[in-house]
Amino acid sequence: MSEHKHPSIKRSRRRWQVWLVAVGMVGVLLIAILGTGQDAGTILSIFATRFLGIFIEAIPFLLLGTLASGMIEAFLTPEDITRFLPRNPFLATIAGAFMGFAFPVCECGVVPVVRRLFNKGLPMWVGITFLLAAPVMNPVVLVSTIAAFGWGPIVIGRFVITTLVAIAVGLVFALGAKPQEVLRPHTALPVMGGSGQVSERIMLSLPPQRRKPLLIGLRDALLLAGDEFFDMGRYLIIGSLLAATMQTLVSQDTLLALGRGPVISVLVLQILAFVLSVCSTVDAFLALAFAGTFTTGSVLAFLTFGPMVDIKSTLMFLGVFQRRTVAYLIILPLLMTMLIGIWLNLNVVF
Fold first, then answer.
1. Comparing 84 with 132, which gets the higher pLDDT?
2. Distance between CA 285 and CA 283 in Å, rounded?
3. Given 119, 134, 199, 210, which is the most exposed site by the fewest CB atoms within 10 A?
4. What percent of the chain has pLDDT above 90?
5. CB atoms within 10 A of CB 16
6. What is the pTM of this model?
7. Cα–Cα distance measured from residue 297 to residue 261, given in angstroms and rounded to the nearest whole number
8. Out of 93-102, 110-119, 200-209, 223-232, which region has the weakest mean confidence (pLDDT)?
């Protein structure tokens, strides 16, 4: 028998692992309900309402993201990536921070788009920069943030901080990691380590890709989008379950009571952003409710860290990146936005 398991066996095992996590979370919720002695029906009703709220809010954006992913696969060639992307790694990373204006997706839809771009040969570090920046750096979020706060320090701060953090994290991976160490095997295959180009071996073994006729391309894009939707959807379901469980078991009043002071307020709102998992297209209106109670630095940390990383996006990251990479994608933005938020609270008067 071969040492390497068949891909279908691996996929089947991953599906069982995902659903075991879901069952485990529901079990934890039930045990917590029994331990508190509260009315089980009421708590389960709250849990179901919060789960459906998160899931229904996120699913349209996942659908848009998978449709964009299908369009990229059908109509974009590896040559397009290398033609329009700067060859200088630093300039390419900066370009990645602003790709959200070309692919306007939130954190729910950006993961399938990034995975498809990786399969087209997008440099790994540019994809990570795009992954972290796109949920904020897109026209929809720009308009919603201005509508909530008006043009001023919150809008400017949100976009500047997001740009700086995304580029910094991208450069960390550009300087210190190889694609095979960062990406899952099926994603890393077409990406050369550090060259930013599609593997020459693959390019020589496959005929050059050409743009498909419109109708054929649309058909293939829809078929690919369907596969991508169900593939990434299971991670969205698990992330939504986990977020709803955290919201049900952890009182928001408890978190809000801790939101005082230049340091603790930043950490509290970062935790809240991670737990609530609110879509970046509407989170500015939620942050507006905190503006009168929390410091400006903590509100900016909420508006920058939350779109980069939350519970549901973390679960979706696992479909593209190695587990250690996912840990870095959480820790690095967390620390950077925390330090910037605290520095703003201590040194800048708004």
1. 132
2. 5
3. 210
4. 14
5. 10
6. 0.72
7. 11
8. 200-209
d(CA 204, CA 248): 54
Give dist(CA 136, CA 282) in Å, integer. 11
Q: Which residues are within 8 A (CB) of 196 and not within 5 positions of it... i.e. 6 or more apart?
A: 82, 85, 87, 89, 92, 123, 126
| Residue 348, token pair as written in the block | 């800048």
- Token code pair at residue 143: 């308009």
Helix (H, G, I), strand (E, B) or coil at 13: helix
Per-residue tokens: 325: 């990479």
Q: Report d(CA 218, CA 211) in Å as an integer.
A: 11
Token couple for 280: 């970046």
Q: Which has the closest alpha carbon to 209: 113, 122, 80? A: 80
Q: What are the φ and ψ backbone dihedral angles of 24, each rounded to 5 degrees?
A: -60, -40
3-class DSSP state of 15: helix
Report CA-CA distances (Å) from 167 to 44, 92, 177, 192, 285.
42, 10, 15, 20, 26
3-class secondary structure, 183: strand
Band (195; pLDDT cuts 50, 70, 90): very low
Which of these, 292, 240, 285, 263, lies nearest to 56 by C-alpha position?
A: 240
Q: In Å, how far from its chain's centre is CA 14?
A: 20
Dihedral of alpha carbons 86, 92, 94, 97, sign = positive
Contacts with 233 (C-beta within 8 Å, 6 or more apart), sequence order = 59, 62
Q: Kindly state the helix (H) or strand (E) to which residue 320 belongs, with its residue range.
A: none
pLDDT of amino acid 5: 47
Summarised one tens digit per residue, pLDDT across range 112-163 is 888 878 877 788 888 899 999 988 988 878 888 888 888 889 999 999 999 9
Handedness of CA 145, 233, 134, 304 (dihedral sign): positive
Q: What are phi and psi for residue 240, nearest 5 degrees?
A: -65, -40
Q: Tell me, what amino acid is at 323?
A: R
pLDDT at 250: 63
